[in-house]
Amino acid sequence: MEDAMDATSETSEDAFHAFEHAGWEAVPRRYDESFAALTVQSIEPLLGAAEVRDGMRVLDIATGPGYAAAAAARRGAGVVGLDFSAAMVVEARRQHPTLDFREGDAEELPFADDSFHAVVMNFGLLHLPRPERAVREAHRVLRPRGRFGFTVWAPPEQAIGFGLVLRAIQRHGDMSVPLPPGPPFFRFSDSGECMRVLQDAGFESPRVDLVPQVWRLRSPEALFEIMLHSTVRTAALLGAQTPDALDAVRRELRDASAACRNGDAIELAMPSVLASAMKG
Ligand SMILES: C[S@@+](CC[C@H](N)C(=O)[O-])C[C@H]1O[C@@H](n2cnc3c(N)ncnc32)[C@H](O)[C@@H]1O
Whose CA is nearest to atom 8 of ligand 1? Predict the structure, then answer.
C-alpha cells in the first residue's frame, strides 16, 4: 500500500478525510461481519494498557460498532464512543443501545480539556490524515495521570492478511494507481514512530507491545472478498486494478489462503501493535 497511499500534502488532507469518511459510511454491517472477531482480540490488552477500571470515565475514539466501548462498560467504566461516520454510530447504538455514542472527529474532539480518565482508539489512527493532531487531542481531553492507548496493524510481513494482498497486487497489478494520498498505512506499525508521536504530543513513559491475533476465515475466498468489500483504502486499491489483474489477485489470494487451512477455518496471523502512554 505504500506507493499508492503515501505522501500527504497540506492540500490533500481534506480529500483523504472525505475519502475515508465516504468509505466508512458505506461499510458498517459488512465491517462488523468480517472484522469484529479480529479487532476485538486487541481490546482487553488495550483496556489493560489504558488501565480502564470501574468508575472511570472513558473515551473510545473511532469506536466503529462500539466494541471497545462495550468492553470498557463491562469493566464498570462510564463510556463515550465517538466516530465520524453517522452510519457507524447507528450500528454502535443498534448493538449497544444503553451506551453513549456520538458523531465526531478524532482530530477535533468535542470534549472539554481533562474530561476523561482514559482514552483508547482501536485501529483508528491509521485512517486519519493528521494523526499527530488526534494524539494531541487525546492528550488534551485526558485528565493528568490518565492513560491513552491505541492499536494499529503490525507490518504486513507479520499481519499476513495484508501482506498477502499487497504481494498479490505487486505481482499481478499496479501499486501506483491514483488514490487520495494519505499517511502511510503502516506508519505506526513501527514502534519508534509510535513513541515519537506520543512524546511529541506531551505523553510520558510510552510503551509499545505486539498483540498476537489470529483471523479465522470461513473459506479461501473470504480474504479477497473482505478486503474488496469491507475496507476503505485496501478496497480502493483493489478496485482500481484492471479486471484481469483483479482476477489474478483473487486467484492468488484464494490459493494462499487455502494453504493456511487449519481444520474447518483459514487461519491468518494478524497481530496488532499496541502503544500506550500517560499524560504527565
Ligand atoms: C478500522 S475501524 C475500527 C473500528 C473499531 N474501533 C474496531 O475496533 O474494530 C476504523 C473506524 O474509525 C472511524 N474513523 C476514521 N476516521 C475517523 C475520524 N477522523 N474521526 C473519528 N472516527 C474516524 C471509522 O468510521 C471506523 O469506524
Answer: 122
